[in-house]
Amino acid sequence: MQIAGRTIFITGGGGGIGGGMAQAFAEQGGRIILADIDADFAEAEAAKLPAGTDAMALPIDVTSRDSWAQARAAAEARFGPVDILCNNAGIASGFAPLIDMDPADFDRLVAVNLTGVYNGIACFARAMVDRGAGHIVNTSSMNGLNPFGLFAAYWASKFGVLGLSDSLRQELAPHGVGVSTLFPGLTRSRMSESDTVGPGAMDPARLAQIRANMMEPIWLGRAVVRAVEQDQPYIITHPEYRDDLARRFDTILAAFGEPAQPGYRTGASATGR
């Protein structure tokens, strides 16, 4: 899909990766809608876009379907149908064992990071299917592929985004609608710079070193643009995670062996592949 003249709706548009996406799509002549729970941050990002960019900022609570409906109505009143949806809004929490987590915090993480993605799809995908064109980008995380302890609720929500996106891509491909999943690593944003997100027990010098090596959001945004143009299923921007991911998948593949049931006849999987 070519970007020039297309309308792009970006949640989590108040900075960080969402701001990088907006910049990158604007570079290619896209019309930009920046939606964020904090409309002031979205307005500030809209003001940073290249001169002449047709853009607007909107408030949105991705956990509220009424909020989605209102944002869609405002966007379409200004630009007409949305061509590209970037479900990028997300939150994190401090590092802690899952058994010590407040259930309300778990519910909130899933509501924003996973159900919020579903809400965006439910709001826009049917119209894309009816037009026979469109693209959806869902933001997961590198740790949605390879998790580690003390952040289980976040990783669970991001694993969910991967499964949802892979299935949705198969469902929508026959209708001319693409789906891509973004797996960012450490990226400069308000969330990654917040002291409430990082592990409280981490040595301050180590934490400073990590934050000094974060990728700038514009480069992730440009990777997203390429993925939309080429209909790529996965967008991986941080190659330093490859070896860890390879070890994880080697462990999974090593678990395959003989059927658990003696005499079981192996054949086609339930997916029909």
Automatic annotation (TrEMBL):
Domain of life the protein comes from: Bacteria
InterPro entries: NAD(P)-bd_dom_sf, SDR_fam
Keywords: Oxidoreductase
Reaction catalyzed: 2,5-dichlorocyclohexa-2,5-dien-1,4-diol + NAD(+) = 2,5-dichlorohydroquinone + NADH + H(+)
Presence of keyword Oxidoreductase: yes
GO molecular-function terms, A-Z: oxidoreductase activity
Annotated family: Belongs to the short-chain dehydrogenases/reductases (SDR) family.
Protein name, entry field: Short-chain dehydrogenase
Source organism (scientific name): Sphingobium yanoikuyae (Sphingomonas yanoikuyae)
